[in-house]
Structures are given as C-alpha cells and as structure tokens.
Amino acid sequence: LVQELHRRLASVGWLGYKDPDHDLYTEETRKAVVAFQLSQGLHPSGEVDEATWELLGDPNPPLATPTPLPSAIDVMGMEGLAELLNLPTYTEDGRPIVYLTFDDGPSEYTQQVLDLLARYDARATFFVVGEQVEFFPGALRMELQAGHTVGNHSYDHASLAGISQEAFLFQIGQTEQAIVNAAGDLSTHENNARYLRPPYGLADDTALLYAAALGYDIVLWDVDPQDWRRPGTRAISDYILSNIFPGVVVLMHDGGGDCTQSVQALATVLSELSAQHYAFHRIVLP
Ligand SMILES: [Zn+2]
C-alpha cells in the first residue's frame, strides 16, 4: 500500500516527488502528503485518510499554498518579517543583514551546516524538532556553543493547527525538555528564548493562543526555496539569491531527509552574500 502511495504521489507532477522504490513511509513522504493535502484544501494531517487517497488518484488543480498566518509583506505593506518582529535590517556599520534559519534538525547534516557558517563567521537560527534533538544531542550543543539561536519546531513535526491543548503542550514542552537535556550546562537564560516555528507554517487561532500562553513568539520566514523537495542545488541558491533584501528571513533545512543539496546551496549563498557585504545574524527578538 505504501508503494502504491509513492506511485500516486510521484504521479502528481507539481509535487516534485520521486518514487523512492521502497515501502517506507518516510518524513519526506509525510511532507509530500501534507503538501498534497494543502494543495487540495484538505486538513494537512500528514496521514493518508480516505479523502486524501481518493484525491491522489484524481487530484484537483492545486490551490496556491495557503499562508494561514499573514506574511509580513501583506501586513501594512511591511518590508518583511524583520520589520514585523522589530529585528534590525542593517548592522550599525551599515551592512545589510540576512537571517538564515534551518528547520527539522538536528541531523547528520547539521555539522556540515555549522562548519560552513563558521567559515563565514555567520550566526543563524535552528528550529529544532524535539525527537531529533534526542537523537543528535551533540549537534544541538554545537549549535549553542557556536552562538546560534535555537527555536522550537515541535516534538515530531506534527501540525499544530487543530490539535488539543494537551497535544500542543506535549509538542512544545517535550521539545523544550529535549533541548534543556541536550544543552546541559550550555543552557542559559538567554538561549532559552521561546521562539516557535510551527511545522508547515501552520497554526490556527487556538494554537496561537496556546503559544502565547506559554510565552512563545511565532517566527515564520520571508523566503522559502523549498529545499526539502530537492529541486537541485542551483535552483535553491538561485531562488534565495534572487529574493534577498536587507533583513530577509530565509528558510532552509538541516534535517527531515537528504539535505545534501541544501548544504551545497548554503555554501553558494554564504559566498555570494558575503561578497555583497551581507552580515549573517541569528534571530534575537527585542
Ligand atoms: Zn519543518
């Protein structure tokens, strides 16, 4: 049945999903299912229910990817997320700032990302998945040691929209605990900041209330090159570089599947943007 699911997903051209030719329901499969569900106006559960299965056999034309939380650009004509969150867009000496963010890690790719960032004296923000932190506590420590920001991206990459308060508390609280456990003595007041990036960028009003009650700030992004779909290294770096502006928040991935293209694209992005005198800062909300 899972192999048939792979075939159906692969036959939906605009998903960009390649049939992996095995019978595992991987994180990548789940993401493709979520992307498909969003495109069909279904609840993005990541689980193949009857409606999803039927539409996979005979899909409707894709809806534009919904942005359930208003993007900063739509809000009062703001420049981008940085302005909305009161983040600086230029350094004091006048260099434009880019905020690189990495979701779904840590993973076996995180060290390569950290090495590249270090080469450019770049700081970034990692929105980590709790169960990944439990698998890769050393990588989490390396992120903190190198002075990056760590944010919360749920425990197992569940959609936070439409879930109960209990489930929400589990997703966020269990991830907090995983971070504290992994960080150990590196855990400080400053790096315990409560930044939440909901998986798939999805949160409904209820989830936003729960997040606020826990003292979390929601941090989305401006530029999404969809690197997790592996469109090619060049496509990822080109997309980022052609959508850059001072204060831009860029979404990339250091987990959730094969991140080889993301790492290679990051090398290009760092090199090109540092040639344009960009400074790479981590997110620290005022
Ligand atoms: Zn994610």
Name the features.
7 strands, TIM Barrel, alpha/beta, 11 helices, two-stranded parallel ribbon, five-stranded parallel beta sheet, 286 residues, single chain, binds zinc ion
Describe this entry's structure for a reader.
The protein has 286 residues and is an alpha/beta fold. Helices cover 40% and strands 9% of the residues. The chain contains 11 helices and 7 strands. It has 2 domains: 2-57, no CATH class; 81-280, Glycoside hydrolase/deacetylase (TIM Barrel, Alpha-Beta Barrel), CATH 3.20.20.370. It is globular and about 55 Å long. Bound molecules: zinc ion. Zinc ion is lined by residues 103-104, 153, 157, 199.
Ligands bound, unique? zinc ion
Instruction: Report the span from N to C terminus.
Output: 50 Å
* CATH class category of the largest domain: Alpha Beta
- Helical residue percent? 25-40%
Low-confidence stretches: 65-77
Indicate the mean pLDDT: 88
Taken in chain order, the helices and strands follow as HHHHEHEHHEHEHEHEHE
Main beta-sheet strand count, sense and barrel state: 5 strands, parallel
The fourth-level CATH homologous superfamily of the largest domain is Glycoside hydrolase/deacetylase
Q: What is the number of strand segments?
A: 7
| Percent range for β-strand residues | 5-15%
- Under the CATH scheme, the architecture of the largest domain is Alpha-Beta Barrel
Query: What's the overall geometry?
Result: globular
CATH topology of the largest domain: TIM Barrel
Integer tally of domains? 2
Helix/strand/pairing category: alpha/beta
